[in-house]
Amino acid sequence: MKTKIIISGGGTGGHVFPAIAIADAIREKEPEADILFVGAEGKIEMEKVPEAGYPIKGLWISGFHRQLTLRNLLFPFKLVASLVKAWGILRQFRPDVVVGVGGFASGPVLEVANRTGFATLIQEQNSYAGATNRLLGNKVSRICVAYEHMERYFPAEKLVLTGNPVRKDLLMTQPTKEQGAAHFGFNPERPILFVFGGSLGAQSINEAMAANAELLAAHPEVQVLWQMGKLYVERFGDCDTARLPNVKAQAFVDNMNMAYAMADLAICRAGAMTITELAQVGQPAILIPSPNVAEDHQTKNAEALVAKDAAILLPNDRAEERIIREALDALALPERLPELSDNIKKMARPDAAARIADEVLSLIKK
User: What distances in angstroms separate CA 214 from CA 194, 322, 324, one per listed residue?
Assistant: First the structure.
């Protein structure tokens, strides 16, 4: 009989791409495995999962907003509808294991799977466990984590330290600094900053960059690739900073491998998958945690790196004042960037997807 696995979750690229990496790793070990994704209707997974070659079913589910909004009134109805649909999917597909990767759809599917006796595994990407995974932790069969000391949130006997899966393109090719600089039209002999806030962009990082035109103009030797995100191009694309000759501002970076390879220092958010990528390539970074995430988990992620001297933490409310000065200070210390690179590289786990796949398949054998 074919191995049958459901992978549930999504909502952001930080959940979807690791989920696809796990599915790919399972397929490498079990080429005939039948893998079905369950996501949230209207979210990124409904596009990216089929593009990766996997079927997906959508649930009518969304998050519960911390502020009081009219959308919260729909949440109980969405939750009940999603639980009912999840039950139907599980009853029809009859998976050997159900995997939750976080995101809106993960909760209902894993809750029903646990109640109806299926083997279950969840992956927690952050150093501070999310509310849904904390609720599921006592019920699931196995918990794969990316950070040490997660017994604060989960039963220790269920924990397996695997790391977070990383995109295949980061594992397959390692460009040189010269190749990366040539790709973006920079001089590899001069310092290069890579500033980004994800594909959609980060408002406070963009505002901080826009406010530092004068300081960047005073340091023309420092080159900057600024990915502002497609949501912010109209607002920031013609600001003084974006028009500086040593700054290249664009909506999206088409090749993150090349950008990481050329950058002496990155300035970015502290999401789990961003940190995973930084570790994989040994990228020194200034982390500016987003204030708009549940339970401030990005700050906890950044603090876990700072504790190992693997990154620099800059609070979001100080970004406008310090974003470029922190970068200039780091660039001025020749030994600092190699230290950060060596320390964050020690946290890389390039085999994370394969290790999670092994844990999934081991549950079938049990």
Answer: 18, 13, 10
β strands within 84-222, DSSP E: 97-100, 119-124, 142-145, 159-161, 192-196
- Please work out, in degrees rounded to the nearest 5, the angle formed at the alpha carbon of residue 290 by the alpha carbons of 285 and 294: 130
pLDDT of residue 101: 93
Give the whole-angstrom CA distance, residue 351 versus residue 362: 17
How far apart, in whole angstroms, are the C-alpha atoms of residue 105 and residue 9?
A: 5
CB 349 within 8 A of CB 162: yes
How far apart CA 27 and CA 30 sit, in angstroms, is 5
Structure letter (DSSP) for residue 65: P
HSE, side-chain direction, 13 A CA sphere, residue 130? 24
Give yes or no for a contact between 6 and 98, defined as CB atoms under 8 angstroms apart. yes
pLDDT of residue 57: 96
Q: What is the pLDDT of residues 31-79, one digit of tens each?
A: 999 999 999 998 889 999 999 999 999 998 876 555 556 666 677 788 8
Q: Which residues, in sequence order, are CB contacts of 299 under 8 Å at separation 6+? A: 270, 289, 313, 315
Q: What is the pLDDT of residue 251?
A: 94
Q: What is d(CA 350, CA 174) in angstroms, rounded to the nearest whole number?
A: 13
Query: Between the CA of residue 198 and those of 46, 270, 352, 359, what are the distances in Å?
Result: 19, 10, 22, 30
What is 4-165+350-365's CATH number, 3.20.170.30, 3.40.50.2000, 3.60.110.10, 3.90.230.10? 3.40.50.2000
Low-confidence ranges of the chain (pLDDT < 70): 63-73, 171, 366
169-345 in CATH: which number? 3.40.50.2000
